[in-house]
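Quick illustration, no need to memorize.
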Amino acid sequence: MADRTLRSAAVMAAGTVLSRLLGFVRIALLAAAIGTALRGDIFTAANTIPNSLYILLAGGVFNTVLVPQLVRAIKNHDDGGQDFTNRILTFGFVVLAVVTTACVVLAPAIAELYMPKELHNPSRTAEKAALIMFVRLCLPQIFFYGAFVLVGQVLNARRRFGPMMWAPIANNIVACTSIVIFLFVYRAGDTPPTYSHGEELLLGLGHTIGIAVQLLVLLPYLKASGHTYRPKFGLRGTGLSKTAKLGIWTVLFVAVNQVTLVVVTQLALAGSAAEDPGAKAGLFAYQTAMLIILVPHGIITVSLATAALPQMSALAADGDMAEVAQLSARSIRQTLAIVVPAAAAMVAFAYPIVTVIAGYGSGKNNLTLMSYTLMALALGLVPYTVQYFQLRTFYAFEDTRTPFFLQCVIAAVNITAAVVGVRVLLDEEHLRFSGVMLGGAYALAFLVAVLISRPVLRRRVPRVPGAGIGLPLLAMVIAAVVGAGAGRLALWAVDLAVEFSGPLGAILQLAIAGIVMLPVYAGVARVLRIHEVNDVVSMVTSKLPGRR
């Protein structure tokens, strides 16, 4: 059983890593094809809206209400949950179809919701029309996103974990193929200000078909898992109403996040839609930087939090608050041992990082402002990580109400700081820095969240020896700053002799920086006796050839 679990984990991890890599390939192709300014932002916004609406209108309900009941039915019902699963799938498909149809009909109004005032300028009529068209072409993704989650959760409940992790690869392959065709059919050298009808169809439908293929890949595995789907209507007697009441706070939590996303999208588009000529950091820059900072989060933070939550829940159920505090703090420190140097590297080496990802074709004209946006967002990675664990500690006590109110504070700070930063501090001539301001607002919001959440959490979890994170975090920051500074000095010295340019040069720069920074970080951590960092170093070195 242990071997099977390890194999399943390895399969899922491999699928996740490959999917993320292909996701960055897709971003690089998009940057080369349509650029990273307003033209790129128009498509990025339209392609983001369907997933946001799915999460807002159905995603929270599916994950908090339907999925837990689905797992219980498969485990406990005499028929292995066949009847219940068919009822849930049918109900979900119908809801998704109705929601998707309504959204497609209301596409112009939905697009209007995300538009800043700058896109209402008569000189931006073509760009506004392109956004509406892209939104209409991408909105059918709502159905496919939702159906993918439903079918994938059925497979997970039947212990078929791999397909749901690997299926997004098919989506990325289809999307990348559509962009490559775009590059061949429509020249990317001289990027026009807006899109032709053919360009809209190719990009919009190409990405929507990708989401559909992602769903279709799962269907053979559903049948192979032992479940045969037949439409079955009716939810009476399924017990969903009780679960719905328990999940209401999580649904509201999701809704608050989506309100923030609407405001951020508007402000990011305002920056790229401004009349100010030249490079701009708008939505494409902001979302690309966000994907970069979430790489260590997805690989390290989520993994450790997923492992820690069941243990914390069991300890909380036993009333062992001291152990909950120690386990929570230990998990945070272990995660920060990797996240802190990652954040420092993103600040110190932001330009070569974004060059590797977006320094192609039309995208290479906007790298400086993209790097500033990454720097601003990277400052929020550490508080975001700490807050992520603090929320999981609340969840260990089956408390979803407190995280909702904390998220309201985060949203309020984020929105206020973003609006002030973009609309008050920036004049029309400097709106191109909107992505940078939004990154700063994000970092500030999670810093405030950590400061507010800590005392609230103390009401449940006492302050006990071995449960601190402040001094270890300070030591990690010192070690990371010294390491990143050494890396920068090394690059400066090498730059005197060799001139680096383009994505290949950026890869070499990052390699040099990493070779210098990591040993220095580990060395300073050893001097400062940061046990979590030393443990990571020992674990890695023990795997080297010749070491036992």
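Residues 1-6 have pLDDT under 50 and may be disordered.
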